[in-house]
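Hi everyone,

Forwarding the result from last night's run.
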Amino acid sequence: MGHTEDILNDIRSQIDAHPQPLAEARTRLELVCSSAIGFTGALRTYRSGSLPQHTFIHPVGDGDGGVVLDRRVYPQLGPDGGGETPADITGELCALLGPAVRKVYPKARCGTSKRGPKITFGELVDAQDPTVDLVVALTRKEGAGLWIPNLETDRWEASDPERHVELFTGGVTSLRRTRRRVVRLLKAWNKQYSEPGFSSHNLTVWAWEFVEPGMGMAKALSAVLSKAAARVEAGGATKDPAGVSPNVKLLVGHEVAARRLRGAADGVAEALAADDARDAVLSALSRAFYRYLDAPASDSLASKIAALRQRSPVTTVTLGLSGPAAAVRPTRAYGDNGHHA
């Protein structure tokens, strides 16, 4: 194992979800799904996102799932029916889930998120309180996938979250393991920014596209970042792997997204190129994972020297005196902006 892989494993030890809250998130999602299956017209429930894909990082947030309703039971609901929007049916489901969950978690409350009910529990586990987001989904008359709500616009949108889980958890064991580790590292890198540039789904799609069998974790991470950077720089689209939803959207502008990706890609590539020199690897990776790694001490000293060199030179001030007092140096240096250095 080279130094790049070794240091990335150090990052993994900081970001991997803690076992207890992760197990609690699974328990809570199972409780909500088992309650939702009793809703009128429910055909099945499903689990989606980070839990079934094993890509949660610390701290554990929301467990995602859904309940699929038979559109024939609701002939007025959705694009294939009378066009009724998802707001009312979401409220009805929340009215069922709240009391059911409070039998186990007395402080639980049911509100809404973008896709359906959001259940909060009010009980900390290892200082974390995982929530559950449940999608209210409808079967479609034609085409693959489901109709899922967008409660922000009060409209229905086509998607296939069940197919996504099948795709993202497919492949041989070694490929699945590497892909999961890369996704977690990408999530940690992305969350360093006050405004993350990419959704977790976007990062997962890239890992599914670009990680190939036989790649180690470090080379797989490098491949994802460099290929994603090239795509965004070229203005290319990331398509829905299930072929149902519109193209995956960036959360920031293309220029910002491309700059972040390229910077991280260059850092990981530089680390791999210097894989036998730990300080060089640490220096390169610390630029990408700056909240998780400290640059080597030599880097810190070099940066201070460079900063000093960028300041205005100290000049001799002539006061019209003769003899030893003819040249007097100023006692304070000034920076480029005129403020005291």
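Residues 80 and 141 are 6 Å apart (CA to CA).

Cheers,
N.
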